[in-house]
Amino acid sequence: MRDFATIRKDFPILFQEVNDEPLVYLDNAATTQKPTQVLDALRHYYENDNANVHRGVHTLAERATADYENSREKVRAFINAKETAEVLFTRGTTTGLNWLARSYGDAFVEAGDEIVISYMEHHSNIIPWQQLAQRKGATLRYVPLTDDGFLDMTAAKEIINEKTAIVSLAYVSNVLGVINPIKELAALAHANNAVMIVDGAQATPHMKVDVQALDADFFAFSGHKMCGPTGIGVLYGKRQWLEQMEPVEFGGEMIEFVNLYDSTWKELPWKFEAGTPNIAGAIALGAAIDYLNEIGMEQIHQYEQELVDYVLPKLHEIDGITTYGPQDPEHHTGVIAFNLDGIHPHDVATALDMEGVAVRAGHHCAQPLMNYLNLPATARASFYFYNTKEDADRLIEAIQATKEFFKHGAL
C-alpha cells in the first residue's frame, strides 16, 4: 500500500502552471496521467529490448516477447480471468466493442433479435450495435433511467427477454457517475440465453474488477484511463465464445498456415492480434497494473469516495449549479457532470482553465444521454487517486470566480 499524500510526486506533469496558475487536472475520465514508473517502462523497452514479438529467436526478440506475454498475465490476474487465452490486446475499449459487433455479432445475431443497451452509453457502445442491427435486421432497445440517473431495473427486466441476443452496458457511466449492477444484469441476460458485454472503461481504473464474479461474457477497457499509455487496451472474452468467433483483422502473426486460397488461424489469444502489436504499450500497461496493485484497488476506490464525499456537497451549496446523476455522494463515483445557470458549459470550462483547473465540456461522447436529459452539453470534473481535497477546493473556488466573472458581464 502507498500513502496517498506522496503518490502525487510520481506524476511529473502535475507540477506545472497553466495560465500562471498551478495545474489542477480534473479530466481523468477522458484520460489519466502517467506515473514515472510507466514512463520508465516505455523508455526501457525502446532503449533495451526493442524488437518484434513472437517472431525472432535472437535475444532482444525473446526478451520483448517474454515481457509482452508477462503483461498479458498481469492483465489476467488484475481482472481475474481464468486464463491468458481469454485476454486480447486491442487499441482500447472502442476497438474491443467494434470487434465484438463484427465478430460475435455477425456470427450469432439474426434478423428479429434484439440488442439491449441504455441511454447512458458512450458512443463506442452505441454505434457498433446500431451498425450491427442495420446489417442483420435486428432491433436496438434502450433501458431507460430513473430520475437520479440509475438504470431502471424494473424496465430492464421487461426489456431483456427471450428475443434478446446481446446486452451491452457500461459498468460505470462517464457522465452520471453511477455504477451499474452488472452481475444482476448478466444473470438476466443469461436467463434469456443472451450474452453480457461490459464497457469497463470507467470502472477498471477505479475499483476491483472480477470478470468471473460478474459472469461477464466479454469485458473491454482502455489502458490510458488507468495510468497506462494511449493506444493499448484489453478485450476479455470467455474461451467458449472466442473459440467460435472469427478474427476481424488478418495478416501477420495471427496465422497458423497460409495457403494459396485459404488459411488457418493461431490458437487463442493470438488469432485476434494481427500485425505488429503495440508492444511498448502492452508492456507499459503491465507496469501501470503493477503500480495500481501497489496502491491497492480497494484503497483507490475508498480514497476516491472520500473525495466525492468532500466535494459533491460543496458543489450542491453553490447557487445556480445543477449536478447530474445521484445526489447522494455514497452512490456517486468521481465523475461529476454539472452546469451553471445561464453559462454555456464551454464557457465554464474555458473560465476554469484560466484558473488552472482542467475539466471537460461537451456531450462527452454521449449525445443520446444529453438528448434524454434535454441538455446540449455539460461541464465535467472527474477525479483520480492523485487528486486531493485541495484540488477539490480549487475547483469550488474557480466555479465561484466563474460565476462572479459572468455575473458582472466581463465577456
UniProtKB/TrEMBL annotation:
Query: Which top class of enzyme applies to this chain?
Result: transferase
Q: Which SUPFAM superfamilies match?
A: PLP-dependent transferases
User: EC number(s) of the enzyme?
Assistant: 2.8.1.7
> InterPro entries annotated for this entry?
Aminotrans_V_dom, Cys_dSase_SufS, Cysteine_dSase, PyrdxlP-dep_Trfase, PyrdxlP-dep_Trfase_major, PyrdxlP-dep_Trfase_small
Pfam families assigned = Aminotran_5
Q: Where is the Aminotransferase class V domain?
A: 24-395
Q: Which reaction(s) are listed as its catalytic activity?
A: (sulfur carrier)-H + L-cysteine = (sulfur carrier)-SH + L-alanine
One of the record's GO molecular function terms = pyridoxal phosphate binding
**Coiled-coil residue windows:** none
The GO annotation for biological process reads: cysteine metabolic process
Q: Which UniProt keywords apply?
A: Pyridoxal phosphate, Transferase
Q: Which cofactor does it need?
A: pyridoxal 5'-phosphate
Q: Can you tell me which family this protein belongs to?
A: Belongs to the class-V pyridoxal-phosphate-dependent aminotransferase family. Csd subfamily.
Q: What is this protein called?
A: cysteine desulfurase
Q: Which organism is it from?
A: Enterococcus devriesei
